[in-house]
Q: What sequence folds into this?
């Protein structure tokens, strides 16, 4: 359903994404991992249109979306959450979801109930706590009726119980027929959930496959732990 | 002796001035909120609104009041064209520093429009008759009707804008775009369209203010400078980006100007405005309604 073909992104001389080729299938839940600065968020920014790739193509549902503006890409069915929350702080919780839901109030309320924020619907978003912010990010990403949703480091900093809640929510999303690309720095949470895994390091796609296989590979371990430690 | 009548009159005149300042400052605030730049050409929309009323009056021989809609239309149309053809390219091609480049572009536009006015409209001051003649007399005040009408037209326009932003679906998207641009973009909000519309509406409101005040203050090519300064002061006093703040600040400035000019002297009116600004910023650096992020 989503295909990146020779996708590259340069910031000045820095090659943030180097010739990325990947395919994500219908109703799959895949993990995208990599150390800090490996290009995970840059990849999401390119796919969602916030950044224009330097070269390469992004194909979604058979259509080339490489140069489309973000609102069009969203309306075609790609949505995301942000690692650093980008909610509308002075809008209420419900209004945040309504913006994405195109004003469909009953649908927005349904989504809020699903993430467990219904009782806070008239609350000002700027006053939410850390967990609630993450939940609202997820609710808003779902409200635009996506076919594929990118989850950017949503469980970082949460307790094991809270992480469990998110994993349940992600399974719900998949059950609705939505494809999930889950980006995470912490591996432990996603290993049992994702069907396939992509590993980025310094802008290169260094591995892809089943989580158990991928995590065995030396280049992946090296990327995460560093060369010197391995050699010792 | 200061009479109750005088106080009543000054309150109404101050409120009227404050509301016309609000037409200016809310436009500047709206544009700042969405495009993240200070619109230096805002005063020129005021000036062109004034000239539109003048030329409609001269050429079409229409009463001043009926010329007002033409002023709004001129401001909106020019505003839309400026945003669409001059500014939007900056935001598209250089998003990181778009605000800075766009701001300097509006500064250049302001200089261009002032000189355009000098060449095509002449450098001299032109006047138009009042919006409406006659006076209104009550126990508390005697006022000319055009002041009252100006007050009402401003109030209705501002209420309309407030309703649009706070209560309608597109208004909600506007607030979303102002509060978090990337968040709005990926939730399907067409921020570039909203930017163009906010600039058009800002231009329309400034031209409306120019149209309403030209019967009182006349118009000339540099007439926009003073309202521009007031809008910037009101926006800062109210708290950058806060529309309610800009409104309250405008009313405060309008009343300050009127009372200080009457009781102390005209030349002290602006000084008093800056004293209010400095005092407020000293106590609350984010302005009246501004929040620390």
A:
């Amino acid at each position: 359903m989503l295909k990146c073909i020779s996708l590259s992104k340069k910031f000045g001389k820095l090659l943030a994404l180097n010739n990325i080729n990947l395919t994500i299938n219908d109703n799959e839940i895949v993990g995208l991992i990599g150390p800090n600065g490996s290009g995970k968020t840059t990849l999401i920014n390119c796919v969602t249109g916030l950044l224009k790739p330097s070269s390469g193509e992004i194909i979604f549902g058979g259509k080339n979306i490489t140069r489309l503006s973000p609102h069009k890409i969203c309306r075609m069915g790609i949505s995301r959450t942000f690692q650093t929350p980008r909610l509308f702080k002075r809008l209420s919780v419900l209004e945040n979801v309504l913006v994405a839901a195109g004003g469909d109030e009953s649908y927005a309320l349904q989504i809020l109930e699903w993430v467990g924020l219904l009782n806070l619907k008239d609350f000002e978003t700027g006053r939410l706590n850390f967990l609630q912010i993450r939940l609202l990010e997820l609710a808003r990403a779902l409200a635009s009726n996506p076919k594929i949703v990118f989850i950017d480091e949503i469980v970082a900093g949460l307790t094991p119980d809270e992480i469990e809640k998110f994993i349940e929510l992600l399974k719900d999303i998949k059950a609705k027929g939505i494809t999930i690309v889950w980006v995470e720095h912490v591996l432990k949470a996603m290993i049992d959930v994702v069907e396939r895994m992509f590993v980025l390091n310094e802008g290169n796609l260094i591995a892809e496959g089943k989580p158990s296989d991928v995590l065995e590979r030396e280049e992946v371990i090296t990327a995460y732990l560093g060369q010197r430690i391995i050699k010792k | 002796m200061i009479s109750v009548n005088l106080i009543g009159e000054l309150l109404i005149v101050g409120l009227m001035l404050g509301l016309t300042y609000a037409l200016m400052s809310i436009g500047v605030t709206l544009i700042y909120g969405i495009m993240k730049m200070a619109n230096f050409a805002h005063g020129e929309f005021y000036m062109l609104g004034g000239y539109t009323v003048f030329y409609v009056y001269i050429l079409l021989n229409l009463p001043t009041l009926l010329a007002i809609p033409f002023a709004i239309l001129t401001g909106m149309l020019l505003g839309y064209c400026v945003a669409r053809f001059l500014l939007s390219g900056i935001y598209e091609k250089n998003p990181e520093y778009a605000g800075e480049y766009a701001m300097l572009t509006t500064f250049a536009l302001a200089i261009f429009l002032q000189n355009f006015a000098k060449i095509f409209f002449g450098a001299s001051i032109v006047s138009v008759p009042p919006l409406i003649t006659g006076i209104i007399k009550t126990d508390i005040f005697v006022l000319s009707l055009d002041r009252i009408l100006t007050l009402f037209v401003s109030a209705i326009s501002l209420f309309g804008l407030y309703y649009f932003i706070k209560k309608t679906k597109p208004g909600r998207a506007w607030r979303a775009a102002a509060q978090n641009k990337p968040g709005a973009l990926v939730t399907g909000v067409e921020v570039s369209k909203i930017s163009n519309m906010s600039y058009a509406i800002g231009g329309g409101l400034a031209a409306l203010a120019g149209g309403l005040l030209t019967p009182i203050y006349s118009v000339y090519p540099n007439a926009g400078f003073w309202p521009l300064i007031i809008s910037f002061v009101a926006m800062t006093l109210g708290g950058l980006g806060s529309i309610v703040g800009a409104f309250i600040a405008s009313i405060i400035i309008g009343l300050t100007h009127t009372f200080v000019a009457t009781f102390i002297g005209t030349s002290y009116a602006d000084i008093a405005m800056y004293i209010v600004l400095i005092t407020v910023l000293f106590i609350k650096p984010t302005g009246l309604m501004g929040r620390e992020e």
